[in-house]
Structure formats: C-alpha cells, structure tokens
Amino acid sequence: MGRLRRKAWVKDEILGYTDYLVVEPEQNKGIWNRIFNNNNPIHAEFGTGRGQFITTLAKNHPDRNYIAMELREEVLIKAVKKAADQELTNIRFILGNVDDILKIFEENELSRIFLNFVDPWPKKRHAKRRLTHHHYLNMYKHILVEKGEIHFKSDNELLFEFSLNELIHHGLKLKNISLNLYREEGSIDQHVQTEYEEMFIKRGKPIYRLEASF
After folding, report:
1. Catalytic residue among 19, 99, 100, 119
2. Exposed end of the chain (fewer CB within 10 Å): N or C?
3. Active site residue 189
C-alpha cells in the first residue's frame, strides 16, 4: 500500500472530537479509570489503524474500557469517527507512539493489550522496532496487571515466528496458538476482524494468532 499523505485539515478535525481524543494522555497516568468514571478493566490496542476492531469490541463489551493508540492522525480520524457515529462511551483514543506508553500508563493499569497486524520490520537491523521485541515486552509487563494478556495477530509468518521466540524466551505462557485462524468453516464468525484482516481473508492468506500472559 502507498504511504498516506498528511492532510493539513486532519489534525484540526480530530481535535474537535473532545469526547474521544485524549490530547495529553500523560496527565492520566495512573488514573485512567477516572476518564471512564468506573473501575472496569482497561484493554488497549497499540496500532489501532482505522478502528474497526477496537470499536467493535467496545460496542460488544460495554463492561470493559478500551484505549486505542495510533501514530498516524490520517488513520486515527477514521477510528474516532466510528466511535462517535456509534456514540460509544467506553473508548478513548490517543494520537501517539508506543514508545511512550510508560509515560502514559502506570504499573498494573491495563488488563489486556492487542497487537494486530503491526509493521513486521522485516530487516534484521530493524528487529528492535517490532512490537513483540523484548524491549517492548518489558514495557508491557510493567503496565499490565498480574496475569495480564497480550493478544497478537499477524499475516506475516516470519514476524509470528520471531514473536513466538521472543515470548517464550521472555517466559510468557502461551495459549490459543493458531497458524491459520480461519481454516475451519464458520470460524470467521468467532473473531472480530480488522480492516486489514478482512482483506487478507478474501485473498486466502493464513492469519496467525496467539494469546500470551506473564
């Protein structure tokens, strides 16, 4: 896919969604439950893209809170609009970088992290940029509750293999590992898909998935 062009009007538009966009997320470190006005568990998706996955979860699970982080404002505006159109009250959005999550979340503040179809960074010299590299796993461990989970999906076999090795080496417990998530007929209805995922399914590409806990 071609690189998205930055549009000058996007930032002004996204800032208008004051009920959804958290402009200074660092100020909520340790007190995110106050934003949602409840003590429900908080789940976060890092690299939320256009938001189909996270907004569907928020709609289906009103007893959970969701935080969606995305680096590109041209993409995040689409996710924010999805939430606004559905008038969801249990989701907030952060325009930011995963590298900053320790500034944004306190120890034991999240119950689950979703990593869906993140950049595989295929070159070996870029391995540290992969969101399942042990550098990031250390950060996830800090902000997740005890036995908090990481749910990971990818269409990239090499990234999935790399991730398995990193997770195992880091001592995480793995479950529900799938090398072809939709191999069985009817299984597509059992999982919430991202926009990318729907495209890959139509192309017949296998989807790799796992759940991991510290």
Report:
1. 119
2. N
3. no
